[in-house]
Amino acid sequence: MLTIHGNTKLAITQELAVGRKCYYNTADESVIVEDDLAVEATKKAMKEHPEQYILFTPPADTTELELVKSFAPKVKNAEEKRHLIFALKRDNPMAYFKNFINKFSDERNAWFVFKKKHFVEMVDKRIEEINGGK
Questions:
Q1: Which domain-ending residue is among 41, 58, 75?
Q2: CA distance 126 to 81
Q3: Are 78 and 33 part of one and the same domain?
Q4: How far apart are the first and last CA of the chain?
Q5: Do residue 51 and residue 10 come from a single domain?
Q6: Are residues 108 and 85 in the same domain?
Q7: What confidence tens digit (pLDDT) does each residue in 52-69 have?
Q8: How many domains does the chain have?
Q9: Full-model pTM
Q10: Which domain of life is it from (predicted)?
Q11: Range of the domain at 77
Q12: What is the pLDDT of residue 134?
């Protein structure tokens, strides 16, 4: 049964949050990030023992927009919340959201906590999938 804890799960979560795939090496419990896939030793090891490597892939770009839309109602200030929800229905909503989140530090911190929780849940769901729902 696969279990991934602490800093290792956090490392996977962080890679997914920035849109990069990564692998978990079950033999030594390490995380191999996309950049390391160019290293010959890594390629060789993965080719020789593919069963030891579990792929974690980031969600599609559309998932981030859905995540932002589910975050918007949680904005504390009612006026900012209404403005953000309206803006997310317009063209280029992610650009607007990034501008918004960089202007309001309280909401910026809340966004990162919200986003991290989502990605941790995503990693947990993948582990559950691998374990056959156990």
A1: 58
A2: 32
A3: no
A4: 9
A5: yes
A6: yes
A7: 999 999 988 778 889 999
A8: 2
A9: 0.82
A10: Bacteria
A11: 61-116
A12: 57
Q: Are residues 53 and 78 both part of a single domain?
A: no
Among 133, 130, 132, 121, smallest CA distance to 52 is for: 130
8 Å CB contact between 123 and 6: no
Beta strand ranges found along the chain (DSSP E): 22-25, 30-33, 53-56
125 domain-assigned: no
Q: What whole-number distance in Å separates Cα of residue 67 and Cα of residue 11?
A: 20
- Looking at the structure, do residues 69 and 101 belong to the same domain, yes or no? yes
Sign of CA dihedral 70, 71, 76, 78: negative
Closest C-alpha to 68, from 36, 46, 92: 92
Beta bridge partners of 25: 30, 53
Task: Specify if 71 maps to a domain.
Answer: yes
Split at pLDDT 50, 70, 90, the class of 133 is: low
Contact residues for 85 (Cβ-Cβ < 8 A; gap 6+): 72, 73
From residue 78, alpha-carbon distances to 25, 65, 104, 107 in Å are 46, 21, 13, 12
Shared domain check, 11 and 30: yes
